[in-house]
Amino acid sequence: GVGFVMAVQGNCSWSAAGGTNRTMLQDDAGEWTYLATNANAGTSTTCFACYDPTRHGLWYMPSSDGRPSFFDLATLTWEYKSTWDYYGTWTAHRGVFIPELDVLAMISVGELSLWNPTTGHRTVATLAGTQPSGLTFSGYSGAEWDDGLGCLCLWHNASDTPVISTLTPGTDPYVDTWTWGTLPVAESNAVTPSACVPDGTYGRFFYSRQLRGFGILNDVSQPIYFYARG
User: Shortest CA distance to 128 belongs to which of 154, 163, 167, 101?
Assistant: First the structure.
């Protein structure tokens, strides 16, 4: 409802050059406007930002150790609560907000963290089953919530195996186990997506509610691959 929003991180990718911690908004004419500065943005790449439609704002987590912060799109201000649970590992993160569960899910260093956006408490999810072959499960993954299937879908395949991995929560996402699975891909599928780039997939794996399917862009010199889940 406001346009494209970018929660800019501290440094430029693969560079020691300092970036900006100010949030940016792009209007319908394509013009960017600087908004408020996030004082807790950190100074490194591989952090994440995601949209929360319940609270109409952005969640942001730096790749350096710390806590999430929230950007309110109604007031255009940042909120940071030092009383929230602290995440003490410096690593890449990938996050997605799940409206149906009111959960902020964060993938990093091979684990799934679940932040309660009301209390600020972080729970490490218990995972059941076998992690699908080919998936590198880390903050470099692409992650999207499929509201139709009710599962978290991931892509960061080290091979060209066309498998979309899934994690399905139980009734209580904080207490019950999340179960590994895959989305079915026909053996006669004529198109095989390329392998992920080692730098990370991040937002180049996306979900379209209108098309009921997933897209993956592994490289700017390659096509966009699309998976229709039916």
Answer: 167
